[in-house]
Design brief:
185 residues; elongated; 6 strands; alpha/beta; Glutaredoxin; 16% strand
Length: 185
């Protein structure tokens, strides 16, 4: 009886060890040598190119995409109509699968003529594994605005820049025209 119990405990430890290894080293793996067809960008490039702009984060792998995809698209249409520059930043892993998820998102929610960027892997290389998941997003946001470290991370986060500086941030799927009054000339 003791042998069976010890065997079961030993087998349990082995299974848990294998699962732990897989969770740490195999979850959210990306290929930093992969060359995506989507352009990469940094917060400094955005601030320099369009100092009065809106940065909008999307996540094509998020299960909430059917809910936020159309609403964020409507917000980008509003920004287009008001001629306010914006950047859609996709939070995806650098991999063929990541590109495929983003392409499907673009087609499904009609983002065909929208400027979608990936976060620069040269500036933000760590994003894979169990403990580094979303690290690139967190560092990108921290480099965009020092006040944003308490914001919830996720699709629909809008960061408003004025004169290349952080003005405000809001987690929302729908833009309100009043929120854009800061860009009136």
């Amino acid at each position: 009886m003791k042998r069976i119990l010890l065997f079961i405990i030993g087998l349990g430890i082995i299974v848990i060890s294998i699962l732990f290894y897989l969770a740490i080293f195999r979850v959210n793996q990306e290929d930093l040598n992969y060359i995506s067809k989507f352009p990469q960008i940094t917060p400094d490039e955005i601030k320099k190119e369009e100092p009065n702009s809106v940065i909008i984060f999307i996540d094509p792998a998020c299960p909430g995409a059917p809910r936020f995809g159309p609403k964020i698209k409507k917000g980008t249409d509003l920004l287009d109509s008001l001629k306010i520059p914006y950047y859609l930043i996709a939070d995806v892993l650098y991999s063929k699968k990541g590109d495929s998820l983003l392409e499907n998102f673009i087609m499904k929610y009609d983002y065909l003529n929208k400027p979608i960027y990936l976060m620069s892997i040269e500036h933000f290389p760590n994003n894979s594994g169990l403990f580094n998941a979303r690290r690139r997003l967190k560092e990108f946001i921290a480099n965009t605005c020092y006040k944003c470290d308490t914001l919830p991370y996720g699709p629909g986060l809008h960061i408003f820049l004025k004169n290349g500086q952080f003005e405000k941030a809001k987690l929302t799927y729908e833009l309100n025209p009043k929120e854009l009054e800061i860009y009136k000339k």
